[in-house]
Amino acid sequence: MEALMQVLESTMEVRDPYTVGHQRRVSQIACTIGREMGLSEDRLRDLRMAGTLHDLGKIAIPPDLLSKPGKLTTAEFALIKTHPQVAYNILSPITLPGNTAQIILQHHERMNGSGYPQGLKGEEILLEARILGVADVMEAMCSHRPYRASLGLAETLDEITRNKGILYDAAVVETCLNLYGQDLPAPRPVSAGPTSLRAIIPLPLDPPGDGARAHEMVPRGSALPRVVAGKSRHWARLLPQGHRSWMHVGSASIIGWLIMASLKGF
């Protein structure tokens, strides 16, 4: 089974190296949460495998759409939302251990029934899928994306706290806060400015859908913000010619801290 996972990962990596790295980090975060919540070794095994393959279905989505630097149309987002079902269909001929395939299928379901692809709610969603969904959002928001800079750990924890019991399982959120909410790493104060993140990038009226775009979208055709702030902390100034390198450094620092904190659970 490990050999099969490596083949699937290698196939994805040729087409979309970012997604493979994202999946590995999500798997690490999810297993740390699951271990803290007392999941058995068998359930942790299923969670690790599901995390490592949860975005396999994106192999059926055009790469340009996955990295589109603007708001998705309704049709485009509908295509993005097919990826859990596509992954499940790809894996269905394989006898995966435990509930691995169902966890992958359900990782975008939400507690209030607003998720996809089945619109499950509450206890209808496997606990492992609820854990994976939160881990997916955490990694996505802490990583840089083509359409925005990393939002930072403080903003990420704000998001899951605001939607605790609404989109995200309350017990999973509390576990995340216990694991990652202490001693937040302070970013280097490169510049300061009064503009808040919410003023720059308005929050969506609808609940977040895809983990990769789980918090906001920069309007199509608009420039990236010059200042990004999280809570009361001021983040680096994004220069027009050099914002990509800033995003890589900032995102790597936050993700590195998340992974190091996760490793303490193993």
Topology:
Elements: H1 2-15, H2 17-36, H3 41-53, H4 63-66, H5 74-80, H6 83-91, H7 100-106, H8 127-142, H9 153-162, H10 170-180, H11 197-200, E1 227-230, E2 233-237, H12 243-263
Antiparallel strand pairs: 1-2
Helix pairs in contact: 1-2, 2-3, 2-8, 2-12, 3-7, 6-7, 7-8, 8-9, 9-10
Please explain how this structure is put together.
With 266 residues, this protein is mostly helical. The protein has one domain (2-263): Hypothetical protein af1432, CATH 1.10.3210. The protein has helices at 2-15, 17-36, 41-53, 63-66, 74-80, 83-91, 100-106, 127-142, 153-162, 170-180, 197-200, 243-263, and strands at 227-230, 233-237. It has a two-stranded antiparallel ribbon. The two termini are 22 Å apart. The model is unreliable at 185-212 and 214-253 (pLDDT under 50).
Helix content: 40-55%
Approximate shape: globular
| Number of strand elements | 2
Order of helices and strands: HHHHHHHHHHHEEH
By helix and strand content, what is the structural category?
A: mainly alpha
| Major sheet description | 2 strands, antiparallel
Radius of gyration: 18 Å
Strand fraction: under 5%
**By CATH's scheme, which homologous superfamily applies?**
Hypothetical protein af1432
Number of helices: 12
CATH topology: Hypothetical protein af1432
**Overall tally of structural domains:** 1
Terminal-residue CA separation: 22 Å
CATH class: Mainly Alpha
Average residue-wise pLDDT: 74
Low-confidence stretches: 185-212, 214-253
CATH architecture identity:
Orthogonal Bundle
